[in-house]
Amino acid sequence: xxxxxxxxxxxxxxxxxxxxxSHVTEEDEASFHFIAFVPVEGKxxxxxxxxxxxxxxxxxVADWTLLAAPEIQSRMAQYEExxxxxAVLSLVxxxxxxxxxxxxxxxxxxxxxxxxxxxxxxxxMDEATLPLDCEALRARFMLKSHEHYGIDQMETNPAIGTNxxxxxxxxxxxxxxxxxxxxxxxxxxxxxxxxxxxxxxxxLEEEQATSRRNDQxxxxxxLLEVIDRMEKMDLFLNGI
Length: 240
Prior knowledge:
The protein is mostly helical. Helix content is about 60%, strand content about 5%. It has a 3-stranded antiparallel sheet, with no helix packed on it. It is elongated and about 100 Å long. About 10% of the residues are buried.
């Protein structure tokens, strides 16, 4: 029996129990399984573990969560207040990944601007007011200065996307390009700070998770409660 047939059999069994036993509780009726909502090419698909195939939600909206939310809320509304018979999980892209992508684009753009400035005026650094000295500025837009952030070498290669960037740069003079470069320096500092903050937050969360896994406090508390109840029971029985 394949997985789909097994899921279908589980659904049929749940339906049969519901029809044959009017006194069956919600807990007995529920078939615990996963339901996922997935956006694919502008459409939202509902993947129900008890259905034979995915279900496409009819409407198309800019924000796919507007379609998924009512379905989830309807499911949650089936339970009385205080009942926790479900778990809701959301899968999102790691913010560090987005930050590193932005940092990659920053380094790439800065490298292209530096190269373009060197081509149109080799002495531009002597004439411009810069936020950093020459070596420090060039280091900000070099791969080796960012290897510890995990930026891929191919992504930071200035040759990638050069034609697209140059279409903008060719229409700008040296002061405009220097201003753009200064903005990239400021953006880069904020991106690096954000990456460090996210990584530190991840480290703390991992430490907390490890601590919870090793925490025997709840177990000890439960055992003490059991012992206390047993002692009270002994006193009650002996009293009789």
